[in-house]
């Protein structure tokens, strides 16, 4: 597709269907902004619909995101099939593509949640927590169904880089090293969370943030985050 056609492909993002990916990205951006996860244009959201990858752009205030701001990329060709004029693609794009290709994800969320940042300062190589009811909202990749209450949630932590796109190689390594993980924390930066569907990615992101916040409080009180059995 020519770059001119890619720019004008509005039909890909303009829909009256509230669960169209372009509309959902805008809804999630507003929700996550209210939670303080994507303030100051930080963070990013992407949804995959078969070959189409919908991506929130860089530099747009998340609470003011509009469907016409959304980029669309072909998964197969890795080329943009819709590129809004005057907007820049998100630097998170190669990281989202890693989650799509390595985990067959349906959506990927990146936030600058303070709970995520704090946990990367309190934990070393991995974030760990066990025996908390909320863990049951998360998937257990190694067998069907979700985790159990007493399971241990492990999220790898990778080191931050000066440019977001430079995180791609270490994110790919972490995804391979921790096949059960549905998220990767980035030191002093935030978190990437993915799921099989849009709704699952949203639920996992919320459940993980709850557990990150709880872990900070447990650490403050001197309570181990992993319960001895
Ligand atoms: Zn970021």
CATH level 1 name of the largest domain: Alpha Beta
Q: Largest beta sheet: what is the strand line-up?
A: 4-3-2-1-5-9-8-7-6
In the CATH scheme, what's the topology name of the largest domain?
Answer: L-fuculose-1-phosphate Aldolase
Sequence stretches where pLDDT stays below 50 over 5 or more residues? none
N-C termini distance:
58 Å
Domains (count): 2
Relative strand content: 15-25%
CATH architecture of the largest domain: 3-Layer(aba) Sandwich
Number of helices: 6
Tell me how many strands there are: 9
Shape: globular
Largest sheet: 9 strands, mixed
SSE arrangement, N to C = HHEEEEHEHEEHEEH
- Class by SSE composition: alpha+beta
Rg value: 17 Å
> What is the average per-residue confidence, as pLDDT, rounded to a whole number?
94
Oligomeric grouping of the chains: single chain
Account of the protein in words:
The chain has 229 residues and is an alpha+beta fold. The protein folds into 2 domains: 1-90, Class II aldolase/adducin N-terminal domain (L-fuculose-1-phosphate Aldolase, 3-Layer(aba) Sandwich), CATH 3.40.225; 92-229, L-fuculose-1-phosphate Aldolase (3-Layer(aba) Sandwich), CATH 3.40.225.10. Helix content is 32%, strand content 19%. It contains 6 helices and 9 strands. It has helices at residues 3-8, 21-34, 93-103, 114-122, 168-177, 198-220; strands spanning 44-49, 52-55, 71-74, 80-82, 107-111, 126-130, 152-158, 183-186, 190-195. The chain has a 9-stranded mixed β-sheet with strand order 4-3-2-1-5-9-8-7-6, sandwiched between helices. Helix 4 (114-122) crosses helix 6. The radius of gyration is 17 Å and the shape is globular. The chain starts with a helix and ends in a 9-residue tail after the last helix. Zinc ion (ZN) binds next to loops. Zinc ion binds at residues 42-43, 110, 112, 164, 189-190.
């Amino acid at each position: 597709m020519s770059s001119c056609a890619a720019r004008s492909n509005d039909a890909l993002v303009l829909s009256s269907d509230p669960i169209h990916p372009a509309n959902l990205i805008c809804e999630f951006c507003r929700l996550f902004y209210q939670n303080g996860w994507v303030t100051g244009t930080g963070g990013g959201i992407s949804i995959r619909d078969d070959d189409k990858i919908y991506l929130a752009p860089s530099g747009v205030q998340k609470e003011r995101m509009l469907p016409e701001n959304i980029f669309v990329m072909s998964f197969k060709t890795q080329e943009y099939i819709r590129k809004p004029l005057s907007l820049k693609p998100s630097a998170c794009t190669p990281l989202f593509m890693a989650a799509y290709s390595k985990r067959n994800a349906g959506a990927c969320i990146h936030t600058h949640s303070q709970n995520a940042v704090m946990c990367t300062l309190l934990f070393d190589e991995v974030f760990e927590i066990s025996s908390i009811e909320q863990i049951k909202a998360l998937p257990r990749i190694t067998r069907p169904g979700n985790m159990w209450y007493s399971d241990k949630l492990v999220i790898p932590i990778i080191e931050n880089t000066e440019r977001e796109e430079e995180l791609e190689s270490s994110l790919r390594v972490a995804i391979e090293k921790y096949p059960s993980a549905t998220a990767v924390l980035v030191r002093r930066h935030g978190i990437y969370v993915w799921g099989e569907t849009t709704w699952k990615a949203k639920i996992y992101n919320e459940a993980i943030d709850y557990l990150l916040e709880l872990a900070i409080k447990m650490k403050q009180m001197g309570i181990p985050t992993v319960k001895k059995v």
